[in-house]
Amino acid sequence: MKNYINILCIGAGYVGAPTMSVIAQKCKECKVTVVDINKKRIEQWNSDTLPIYEPGLNEIVTSVRGKNLFFSTEIEKGIKESDIIFVAVNTPTKEFGFGAGMATDLQYWEKAARQILEHSESSKIVIEKSTLPVKTAESMERILQKSNNGIRFDILSNPEFLAEGTAVNDLLNPDRVLIGSKETKDGLKARKKLVDIYSNWVDKDKIITSNIWSSELSKLVANGFLAQRVSSINSISALCEVTNADIKEVAKAIGMDSRIGSKFLNASIGFGGSCFKKDILNLVYICKSYGLDEVAQYWENVVNINIYQQERFVLKMIKSMFNTLASRKICILGSAFKANTDDTRESPALFIARKLVEEKVELVISDPRALNNTKLSLKDLNESISYIEDPYEASIGSHAIIICTEWDKYSKLDYNKIYKQMVKPAFLFDGRNIVDRKKLFEIGFNVFSIGKSDLTHY
Ligand code: UDX
Ligand code: ADP
User: Does ligand 1 have an atom closer than 6 angstroms to the CB of 268?
Assistant: First the structure.
């Protein structure tokens, strides 16, 4: 007799796999299967070396894998056996046709929806996990309603708010879980089933429900607001650099106002990651398509400031290194889009690397976790770049070091040792404000930080 809920997740990426691992761990009455078209990825999820780096995930996966968590490429079988299907496929920005560079490319998502329709033999709850444009559920419903064999699909939106690097904690202790559904009898019934699953470990008052459009839109807006904070503080960092104000002091002063709050006020070389840019451009596209041009422009500027911040950083490097970087050896420390992940999607380090290669720099990139993804992302430039994991070895003979990712270890390096093996004058550009800049200046470095005045010996 069947006494468990069969959950399927389509897409074994940064969102699908960690989320399902936690559901499997916390919900023993669920049998969770994660499927993917990428055979290698599934093999890695079934091995000792997981395909993504996420602190704490290894322990959770090994505790439930083979018990009530399974990774498989058998998508058809998975669909047939499931009661609930999470769709967590990639939804990148469209690179062709109408809306190129802004709209979401829904081809993977649509393929998943069509697979569900083709292989389902019983009614199911289908849950949007990937970030999708508002009203996607409507299209999903349209595809799935083509079934005329009595099978019904109830669509829910359950956006994922986990951040990479802290995914496990975000999943175990979420600020909130959001579940959107149609407000019909069947919609509410489906919503309750998902509420019950999360109730296994999340307080009831943190599980919020809404109509499906509010849920879809909230995900885009949450990322928009977070990115807006980073762009806001980064825009002020430019002002600090020319006025002798210090961005950390400004951030502290404003962040202590409880109405503003202290989080997400770290000035940086810019935000990266798979969500912020994509989601904001999507928001912009949606606003434009409803004729809300001023609203679109407002949000688009969050992305524009992010581009400005990265370009400004490279221009400052060129200017401060006497207007030429050609043939100089430069070492990038950190290529992940933030610390504690191996993900390089939209990483500012990649933007900077491309600009430096255009300037004919002899480039070395170092990162403790992200070098494989970096090589893939920059594969067209691999002849111009060397990859060395050890930061000491990577910086030998370089004219400048650029810190692009705030890995803890980069704030604790032996900079005396590094300085000795660099070409003089030695430059250090701290794109994350993590080093003790006064100490480094005393060692002999010319130090450039974000939102602080330059410390130069010339
Ligand atoms: C984000 C959202 O936080 C998460 O809720 C959503 O589900 C997915 O998108 P993520 O992309 O993993 O998560 O990373 P996040 O921690 O939000 O950082 C995004 C970027 O902003 C990183 O490049 C980070 O370095 C940068 N950032 C963040 C800053 O530059 N300064 C800050 O103060 C905070
Ligand atoms: P995210 O960060 O949103 O999780 P990823 O790119 O890491 O995005 O993961 C999405 C996964 O979805 C990829 O591993 C991709 O191979 C998988 N995928 C895309 N389309 C399908 C599909 N139709 N069936 C199964 N898996 C799919």
Answer: yes
